[in-house]
Amino acid sequence: MIALIDYKAGNLTSVKKALAAIGAEVVVPETPAELRGAAGVIVPGVGHFAATRALDSSWVDVIRGLVDDGRPLLGICLGMQWLFEGSSEEPNVPGLGLLSGQCYRLGQERLRPHRAEDMELRGEVSASVRGGGGAPPPVIKVPHVGWNSLDRRRDSVIAAGVADGAQVYFTHSYVAPITADTVASTEHGEPFAAIVERGHVSGAQFHPEKSGDVGLQILRNFLRTVQERTT
Amino acid sequence: MLSKRIIACLDVRDGQVVKGINFEGLRSAGDPAELARRYNVEGIDELVILDITATLERRRALADTIRAVARELFIPLAVGGGIRTEADGAAAVEAGADKVSLNTAALSNPGLITSLANRYGSQAVIVAIDAKRAPDHSDGRPHFAVYSRSGTSAAARDAVDWAREAESRGAGEILLTSIDRDGTKVGFDCAMTAAVSRAVSIPVIASGGAGGLDHFVDVFTAGAADAALAASIFHFAETSVHSLKLHLKQHGIPVRL
């Protein structure tokens, strides 16, 4: 039985439907006590890091206990960021800290204009160049929304069978850093962690439940690790 | 690199896909779930179900349509048309929509954008803007006049200004439809799309006027669109999604193949 953690950050319907489609049995525990018997845990979520505040110490203690017991944990999108130490989106709310590093906003570290007009105003690209038929200046929009490719960095259980260059669906503004735990990265102005794995703890910055066959493959990989452990 | 998205729109009335020209003259194009399956196989990146059912009692069929599509397709699904209240939006999300698209209700009650964004996240809220060319503003800026109620009622807003406001109120994407081009197959309104796309940081989906493969090339280059939406050219199998994407790739536009 896989427990899907509902901390009111977005809607669980899509994740539930995708898990049902691959034959997973899913429960949404109302209390930390109900979570204790789970064979695997998925922390989904979209939106602001502050929403993870709802996962207070009573939840964290049970989730840590399950992980210590070797049960697989998968974080999706905001749920993956929560596996890290924290996020500059809400510095006062710590993450679970199972993975090292801090999450940060895309493009935060560099001058990254959103708008061609702004670039002109700052004199970075002259109007004559833009009007002269040359290549348009690269425009990196944040949030990062849409299908982007996975650059595989190493073998992993969670991404088994996922080809280098496979595309998946993202929607987010904050990202996790690339570390030794990064299985695949994606580039949007800069590279960031798209799939992470450390032992039986894994995460996807994108939405496997909305990423077609590639996404379902990742959910199947997770389900298999849960089943292998329980049989 | 982030791919440019190709989105198929299913205009649904009484449970059937229909499509008109200049927002009028509807003809039937089939069962929504069946079309959705076909598009998914062909590689569509996203689906929009636009409910154009006139009456409230018939609208209950919408949730069944959403459920039928969402049960087997695992790509983003947006639902729009007649979403007036937070409860309408919640009903669509609970049936399986990942995003709700607000149009008339966002104009008359912009707070709805914020309340839905707070409840489900900005990524779940699309503000749909229907606009057409109007005489330039007095300062010489081009004027794209916004209309509500399926293009019948002038909203006294400019599309660029309204898109900026929608973003600031929590919209996660803008779906920009040219009323002038809708169903005409003469190409997207690239100037209007570029004006809006460059004014906001959120993605802009261009709609209205797709008739040939090069129209999509134009809207992703000159139009600075992040995604393009079309209905009739896909429904009547004039263009397959796959051949469109191959064409875009040949023109150096990143797509998911």
Keywords:
heterodimer; A: 231 residues; alpha/beta; eight-stranded mixed β-sheet; three-stranded mixed β-sheet; 26% helix; B: 257 residues; 10 helices; 12 strands; globular
How much strand content do the residues of chain A show?
A: 15-25%
**What structural class do you assign from the helix and strand content of chain B?**
alpha/beta
**Which chains share the greatest interface?**
A-B, 38 and 35 residues
Number of strands of chain B: 12
Sequence of strands across the biggest β-sheet of chain B: 1-4-5-6-7-10-11-12
Order of helices and strands of chain A: EHEHEHEHEEHHEEEEEEEH
Please tell me the overall pLDDT of chain B: 89
Average pLDDT rating of chain A: 88
Uncertain runs of chain B with pLDDT below 50, 5 residues or more? 20-24
Q: What spatial form of chain A do the alpha-carbon principal axes imply?
A: globular
Helix content of chain A: 25-40%
In terms of DSSP E residues, the strand content of chain B is 25-35%
Strand order of the largest sheet of chain A: 2-1-3-4-13-12-11-8
Class computed from helices, strands and strand pairing of chain A: alpha/beta
The largest pleated sheet of chain A is described as:
8 strands, mixed
How many helices of chain A in DSSP terms? 7
DSSP strand tally of chain A: 13
Cα-atom radius of gyration of chain A: 19 Å
Oligomer state equals heterodimer
